[in-house]
């Protein structure tokens, strides 16, 4: 249970996803030595902005949506983190996602703090015109907070390069000049980076493959089960498949699909593009949603939303390795069960850091207006992910802790060292 006094804007009986983060910070505090003096800094987001986003709907009425931008910490550099469009977005969730960005950027040693944004909306209910108006108004409302040197949004659940293009254009129109560096994950023709689309899935693959090697398993023929078949899940599926692994199960919003012989992710993507659902996917049988967690496999990749692996299902997991493509998919209690059962968890703050790493490359390329080849980008990404994995693995071995705790030790130390060196203003 959370020990420290909560900020007044959190409900102590229902803290929401931020509770997971607070518990993770409490677990790491004993390892922070003299820096523990500053630990409260990690628990308090630096800034929270809640905005009203009113738009005209196509039927002529006006609709209001809740928008958020949270800058959790900027001790190590400008805020960085995605924007989520989802009907369940709330303050606690955006706070947690912003905090995990602080940890992730520090764990991989990118020169950023942590931030996140979101709008409480189901974008499937909006037309393209409504989505554009929503995005432009939201960008204007948070406009004074973001900027290439202040806070740089990116895509997250249900946002994509087109949404980033509208954000960049809106910010630029308000500024009076084009500022490509205000968001990352843009289309390549607008200052986006090659390799960004697959970057998160690629990082999931690189860290998953490293973990397989460390536990003595082969990538060739490894069975992989994936929850979420969007940007992260589908890219991870393709890259694991391309490297000889077998995708035995895919779960998304449309159902759970299983094949002992393996699902071809390229065919699944074609099916999804043609039908808008995985229902009816040839060669795969549909199984119960709850059966997904007990699927026989070596690698399990949650790549949908947070709080999916809980006390209720962690004990069913048969995988040797869980690679967290999603942010916050595992609750602390589930983490303990997995550790006791000998399951190696590659934590979100490492496993899905490929996206923000290539976002960092995009930002650097935009500043210099000099663009790299896809091979250069992938090679640099792979190196950063491998090195981060190796150093966290060593910390985990030395302290006899999980990879998650190791990631938090390294990240919190970096963040608090910066805090201590900068001191408090005034
Ligand atoms: N896109 C990135 O670069 C990036 C980077 C780091 C972390 N992440 C995290 O990865 C996760 C997925 O992000 P994304 O960009 O792939 O989103 P996305 O919108 O492209 O895909 C989400 C997928 O999850 C599925 N899904 C949604 N609700 C589900 C449910 N209840 N059960 C099963 N499946 C469900 C959807 O059907 C879809 O396939 C999120 O946690 C996000 O924060 C994304």
From TrEMBL:
Residues binding NAD(+), per UniProt: 200, 231
Annotated ranges, domain Glutamate/phenylalanine/leucine/valine/L-tryptophan dehydrogenase C-terminal: 193-423
Binding site for substrate: 80, 104, 359
GO molecular function: glutamate dehydrogenase (NAD+) activity; nucleotide binding
Keyword vocabulary terms for this entry: NAD, Nucleotide-binding, Oxidoreductase
Superkingdom, natural source: Bacteria
Active site: 116 (proton donor)
Pfam families: ELFV_dehydrog (PF00208), ELFV_dehydrog_N (PF02812)
Site features described as Important for catalysis, chain residue numbers: 156
One GO BP: L-glutamate catabolic process
PANTHER family the UniProt entry points to: GLUTAMATE DEHYDROGENASE, GLUTAMATE DEHYDROGENASE 1, MITOCHONDRIAL
Sequence similarity: Belongs to the Glu/Leu/Phe/Val dehydrogenases family.
Name this polypeptide is given: Glutamate dehydrogenase
